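Step 1: inspect the first sequence and its C-alpha cells.
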Amino acid sequence: MKQLTGNSRLSAERTWEIFWLCCGLFPPSPQLYPHVTKFLSSRGEAAPMATECAARLYKANRHGARSCPPHAVEVRVEKINKMVLKK
C-alpha cells in the first residue's frame, strides 16, 4: 500500500497490477484486513483497479487462499481490462 501512495504513475500502475494479483491469491491477516479494505475504499474513484482489488480481496477472504497460482490467461485478461479502463 505504501508503494501506491505518492509514487510515479508508472510505478503505481505496476504496483496496482501486483496488488490485484495478491488480492486474488491470498487474504491479508485478520489484523491487516480492515486497513487494506479502508485503503482500497479510499482509492476507489481515483484508481479503478481499487474496486477490482476490493472485490478479489473480499472473495479471497471469504473462501481462503488459492491453492494454485493464477493462470496466464487470467493475468492477460487483467491487462486487457486495465487497457480498457484507461480509454
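Step 2: inspect the second sequence and its C-alpha cells, then contrast the two.
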Amino acid sequence: MPVDDVELWSLDPERNRFRMYSITSGRTLFGEPCLRIVWGRLRRPLRERTEIFSSPQALAARYRELADRRARHGYFVPTALGDPRAVVFPASVPAARPPRTRARRLDAQMPLRGYR
C-alpha cells in the first residue's frame, strides 16, 4: 500500500509560528519499509527521525496517524497558498545560521620550523 510523500506547514504570524513537517516513505538498505519524518521551524536547522516497520500496512497506518495529527494542529499543504516561495517572513524570523564545525586546522596552530 504505497503512500505519497507530503510536506506540511503551519504559519501563524500573530503567534510567531512558522513550522514545517515532512513525511517521506521509503525503504532501508535491507529493504524494510520506513518513514522519514522531518520537522522544525522554517529557515532554521531541522530535526529528523526514521521509523522502520515490519509491513507496508503498518507504515500506511502510522503515516495516516501522523498526517491526521498534524492536520488537527493546523498544518496544511503549502501549495494551497500558491507558490510557497512567495511567503514573506517577518523580520522576527531570521535566516538559519550555518552549522558550527568542530574541525580544526592543525597547520594554522603549528609553528613553522626553520622560519622566523
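Step 3: confirm your contrast with the notes below.
The domain at 6-83 is CATH 2.20.140 (q64v53_bacfr protein fold). The mean pLDDT is 77.
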